[in-house]
Amino acid sequence: MPQLNPDPWLLVLSSTWLTYIIILQPKILSYLFTNTPNKNNKITNTNPWTWPWT
């Protein structure tokens, strides 16, 4: 069964993952996110919505 022969795709798979882990991952993780979460912990008082048909 040719599907069980790992010769043609194992090298490609392993080289792709090694490239991702060694080269691309540090580059991607080095970016700074511009959308920082707001640290404001104020609780806002909201009024409930009044439906006109009730």
UniProtKB/TrEMBL annotation:
Keywords: ATP synthesis, CF(0), Hydrogen ion transport, Ion transport, Membrane, Mitochondrion, Transmembrane, Transmembrane helix, Transport. The gene is ATP8. Its main location: mitochondrion. GO terms for biological process: proton motive force-driven ATP synthesis. This is ATP synthase complex subunit 8. GO terms for molecular function: proton transmembrane transporter activity. It is found in: Mitochondrion membrane. Belongs to the ATPase protein 8 family. It comes from Aldabrachelys gigantea (Aldabra giant tortoise). It is a single-pass membrane protein.
